[in-house]
Specification:
With 271 residues, this protein is of the alpha/beta class. The protein has one domain (3-263): TIM Barrel. The protein has 13 helices and 8 strands. An 8-stranded parallel barrel has the order 1-2-3-4-5-6-7-8, surrounded by 7 helices. Strand 2 (40-44), helix 3 and strand 3 (68-72) form a beta-alpha-beta unit. Helix 4 (78-86) runs parallel beside helix 5 (100-111). It is globular. The two termini are 25 Å apart. 38% of the residues are buried.
Length: 271
């Protein structure tokens, strides 16, 4: 799904589906993804090393498959956000954001790139563009860009409404379960009542502004749980976890002598 249609689907209250690209680092492997099943993909660049050249290669391949590309950058750094947009990303996911000034500048470099410096600060503070022509030009570009805010700590949750109101648009709220539960003092206790309650709070606050929530869960049970809570920006698993699950499933069946051709993929390529 292209970025404009993806944004429109979410604005109309619909759901979109994607996964995290953690291990894939080339256009050749990215080209195996299918837009029949994936609306978007998150290119992991916070915990996995990525060059801008690799990001450019992967975003180009995703675009050719009609899959929206969103890059999770290393930190709420506006210069990294701008450089990643220049490298071809359709959207930016800013992780672990707590500071409103960092949020505003990262948003500005995503939505209004290539504007920067004093002119960008003026736009963010007062809405004043260098000219009407510049405003029209930048707003046209922003129609196909996405800005995702990472809420991954208790202070961020407590300040979520103020953060939402600090910029003119947020396309999604991302929740990282490991970081969030660690901040809560209950590392990886994703079945706890405390974790469920804080997710409900995030979704309720975000949806009050019609902003969909993306919760990164690795298995079907947890993803189903997110859907039941009201998550609409569905982020399920990663290339690494899904590959591992498929290897375990297939080789378990092979060792047991179970052959089920009904579930085979359409491709006959061995690679």
């Amino acid at each position: 799904m292209d970025p404009i249609n993806l944004k429109n689907t979410l604005k109309q209250g619909g759901k979109v589906y994607g996964t995290m690209l953690w291990g894939i680092d080339s256009a050749r492997l990215t080209s195996f993804l299918d837009s029949e099943f994936l609306d978007y993909a998150i290119i992991e660049a916070e915990h996995a090393p990525r060059t801008l050249y690799q990001i450019n290669s992967m975003t180009t391949a995703l675009r050719s498959k009609n899959i929206t590309s969103i890059v999770r950058i290393t930190s709420p750094n506006p210069e990294i956000a701008g450089a990643t947009i220049d490298a071809g990303a359709d959207g930016i996911l800013v992780p672990y954001c707590e500071d409103i000034e960092e949020l505003k500048l990262s948003f500005g470099r995503t939505y209004f790139n290539p504007l920067k410096g004093k002119y960008l600060k003026k736009v963010l503070d007062s809405g004043e563009f260098p000219s009407k022509k510049s405003e029209d030009y930048l707003r046209e570009k922003s129609k196909s860009r996405l800005f995702i805010l990472g809420i991954e700590s208790v202070p961020a949750v407590d300040n979520l409404e103020n953060m939402i109101n600090s910029v003119e648009n947020i396309d999604g709220i991302f929740v990282g379960p490991n970081d969030l539960t660690t901040s809560m003092g209950i590392p990886d206790e994703r079945t706890s009542k405390e974790y469920e309650d804080i997710l409900k709070k995030i979704i309720e606050t975000s949806e009050k502004y019609s902003i969909p929530v993306m919760i990164h869960h690795a298995n079907m049970k947890e993803s189903e749980f997110s859907l039941k809570l009201g998550s609409r920006f569905v982020l399920h698993g990663s290339d690494v976890s899904l590959l591992g699950q498929k290897i375990s499933e297939d080789f378990s069946n092979l060792r047991k002598g179970i052959i089920n051709n009904k579930n085979e993929s359409a491709t006959d390529k061995p690679y």
